[in-house]
TrEMBL record:
GO terms for molecular function: tRNA binding. Keywords: Cytoplasm, Nucleus, tRNA processing. This is Elongator complex protein 1. Coiled coil: none annotated. Residues 1086-1132, 1247-1266 are annotated as: Disordered.
Amino acid sequence: MRNLALIDKKSASCSFLKGCCAATVERNCMYFANQNELCKLDVDQKNAEDNVEILGPLDVGTVLDLKYLPEEDVLAIVAKMGSVSVYSLNSSEFDVVGDVSDGISACCWSPDMETLVIISETGNVLMMSRTWDVLQEVPLFQQDFGEAKFVSVGWGSKETQFHGSEGKDARSKKKIECTLADWDDKQTRIVWRADGLFFAINAVEPSMGHRLIRVFNREGFLQSTSEPVNQLEQSLSWRSSGASGLITSSVSLVQQGKQQMAFFEKNGLRHGEFDISVGHQVLESYWNGDSTILAVLIRFDQENYGLQLWTMANYHWYMKHFSPFEKGIRPLWITWDVIETNRLHVITSNGTYLMMDYQSVVTSSKGLTSSDPACIAVVDNCKLKITFLREAIVPPPMCGWEIEFSTSIHSLDLMSSDSTRLCVLTQNGQLHFFQLTNCEQGEKSCHPDIKIICKEGGRFQPIWDYTASLDLPDYVELHHFRLLNASTIVASSMNKLVVLNIGDSIITIKDSITVDFRIGGLESLREKGDTVLIHLIDGKILELHTNDMILSDSIVFPEFCYRLESINGHVIGLAASGRLYVDGKEILSAISSFVIHSDFLVVTSLQKHRLLCLPLAHISNSNLAITERAIERGAKLVHAVASETTVVLQMPRGNLEAIHPRALSLNIMKSLIDGKSFAAAFDLMKKQRINLNLLYDHNPSAFLEHCSQFVEQVSCVDVANLNLFLGELQNEDFTTTMYQNHYEEKSVPKDGEKVDRICNKLREVMFESDSQQYLLPVVTSYIKQGMVDAALKRVQVLAEESLKDQALKYMAVLVDGDQLYKEALATYDLQLTLMVAHRSQKDPKEYLAFLNELKAMADENERRFTIDNSLKRYDSAVRHLCRCRPIRTEQITSYMRLHRVYVSVIDELCNVLPMSEVKEALQAAACLQAEILVSRENHEEAGYLYQRVGLYNLAVDSFKQCGLWENCLSIASFVQMSDVDTKSLVTILVTRLRSLKKHKDAAHLAEYNLKDYQLTGQCLIDGLFFSEAWALAYRHSMDNWAETTLKNELEGALQMMEGKLEQVGNDCSKYTQRLSVVRQDLLYKRDHPPTETDHGDLYSETGSSIFTHTTGTSGKTFRSSKNRRKQERKKLRLKEGSPFEDMAIINELHVLYSSMSSVLQDVGRLLRGDLLISKDWSRAKCFQSKAELLVKKMEDKKKDIWNFSLIHKNQENDKNFGPSATTEMIISQVNQEKEEFFSTRYLELDPKLRSPPDSPDASWKLDSLK
């Protein structure tokens, strides 16, 4: 699908080149030898004649070969007379290093320039080293086949094989008559294989008079001889690609009226061929460095010479380019460049040196809308193969349409602004214009020299428009033809740009300009039909307006780009180095090809062989969002069909592959959804396997708003599409998960009710439209929500049995048969249950007897109880059991004990009147449920439950246990408890409240209910409420108690608190110091890991091996919550030397810091009591100061304890330890590494332990004591 385009052409002319015998090119310098002199020419100089440097005279006759040896800096010269000499470029002296007395007929250097092969006139093969030592000398014309001679194993001979139509006469071996071609020059040719292990010689066999090809190895031993081929010609080259490459020559088949390029394997056997034009004499053939282009030198009409360039794809040979020479001018020397594989060097007999650079390009339409036919034009000699990729992907060498011309094609182009216009320039100077239209349009008339043949064509076809002659004598020299618009064509020749005007029958020059450097490419702008970009070889881009011929500078690229595209005001270029540029700025490297899609720049990368899609809207941004997918190694882009998802790639062999990149598919899908084309979007997503959730996730509000359109469009083709959509729904926003790279700008919270919302909305729409038409989607929506019972109820109300049957069959596919049977049974509709059972895989013996038993029951509640019990729905079953009449107390009691469904029994029986009928069962259920609550230490709820069923004594006991004295006293009042019992209850409550440390509540009961003020004061003292105790003493005239007991208790409390504060400070210091030591030890172990032989303490004291030790614990995952809690407790044990000691210390410190708030509140109460009772302000001030000092000390230690922050593992940190790093930078980075180490380690901690507790408030302090 590619053509060869002449990118660059350079020429130099001088009279010294007219008699050139041999030459070699090194960079921009060419050394050549004619009959008399050895010369040097700088091909970049403008005036070549004046810049030729004569290195010295030559008197060796005709020079066969001239090579530059860089290590010695000499020129090696091999002459036909037999001399081998070198010319030193340093000393400018000749030196003869060898001589073949019989003369030399041919010679060739190996690819590594280490071995020289010489064929003498007497038929000897002479091999010389780079130091001019003779390595081997063997005769050329040997009778033996060679070392690779075929071995017969006694079967499969010619005589025993099947001969088909040839018959028995084919059993006898026929002698092949071989002759030479009439134009054969009878000269010997030598060629090396690219790896330098073998070389081949094409020479005329003296005894037979025809040519044979012999293959020798690097040591000079004959390997094989080619089979006899009649009219085998003189050309010889060796293709380097493939396992061993193929030897290339030519064969003249005069009797059959054709000429062939033939291929031979290393063993001498024929291996394919291809035909060339009849009447062309093949003189030489040359493979380029990577064997992608075969150059064939031909002669026709006796004095005319030409150069054909052939390529191969999918086992078909295409003649891509033909360069004829002027009449009477013949090429003297042709070679491909060693470094630039697509560069060809030619010297002609008129003294002209030509350097031509070729590049493989795709000629395609450039439209970016759906009207573009996606046309690909492929040149094949006189034929133009056209394929419209929008309608079919036709693999080469096949095509959709074929246009055949009378002469070979020179150039062609498709108009950028109108992709339906095609122009083709042929070698006879005719410019043909075609219109690419639908088959129903246009006339079928055609030019007499043109044939348009339909091959695999369809809707689109090329129609001939008109033909005009090119009124230019040297039009062959023009290249880079670009059809700008219907009236203008631009082309170039080296540094000259020509603007051509298209007339009715003739094309004339409108204007021309000359630029400073050679033109390497022309690119027409899509947006402007009169503007062309001129890309110079030095990377500079100029912009030319052809209407007024104004030339202006545009952009400068760092290097020349052989492929340019202009889109949305940006210029995109791809250089031979693989660098991709946008407006002169490199954005990607290792790129092999690119194409422009409507919304994306699609490129192929050689790194991991990927296809990359870059959005055109952000092509100039530095942070470019790129999506990628893997492709086959060596694949290159051919075309991306505009406004579609198809991208066509050509594989290295030549076959085509159409893919649909996810970025393109999603982009088209978005546009379809935004345009409310839900049916087209749904079809695209099904084909490309895009998750259907995106229909909603792309724009949830718009989807819900246009839900009716969605249902109508999607169900128009098939209602089952709605089932497919509903079945794929998930409570997940796929724009933030699976497709987040394509929705980077979207950020929405997680929607946990997405499925329910969509199902409810779709059901609403379907009910409004036609509930029977959308029966199955409605059922699907219910099942998707897990509402199988609702789906069955929907089926239950259907009137037509056929619809019921259809719905139940469908449900049997979606839901497990047993589950569906149970759900049907739960509807209590026995007829529906029977229909479901018939469609399941259940044996009738499993359900018929049970259903008949149910049908025979008279009591509906009993039937439902039996159904619920069989389904293990014990709550519902016991409710129906409670509704059975008469009340079955014993059965209810035993059933609720068996299945522990006490709450349901209580709820159901509490509504039964009169209560006396069910009191026994009700109180039994309440007691059983209360026992469960008490076992969970939930005495409060147990008390409420006892109160509900009238068990007041038990309710009081439960409230006493949890300290709810108000509830106890209210029940005592309700049941009219006696004063003695009430006082006893209060005494018990005071004791219980004191044990629960509810000192204020206990003091309240002692003061107001028991009138025991001594007990009241003791309760307040226990809670450190000295201010309230002081008020109590003066309220009840307890002066003696206040002066003795209260003051003594205050003194004791202050001493106790001072000791507690001191203990807290000591514990904080101890834990902090130990934590620092443990952390230092962990860092040391991280930086000095144990060696492989250092098992450390993995061995137990009894000497058991580490394998025994680890085997016992390997595989444990601690899945149960009990084991998990046990393992967590192990981690938090304060055992010195344990692997989690630092985490245990952090846990203890967290508890210590968390308890400081309550400690400080106690300190505050003591301060206020001290000031009120003892009035010792100095002591109070000292006490507060100690507490403040401890708080400050602990706050300072927080930054050392919690000195880590949780950092995501994928966060990248720049590290710089080079010469430019300062001491501060290194210390900072080391500390950062430590912090990252502990951040990762402490991810195992409970989240609340990862951060320090909040600092206590200052409400406990008194400002007057500062």
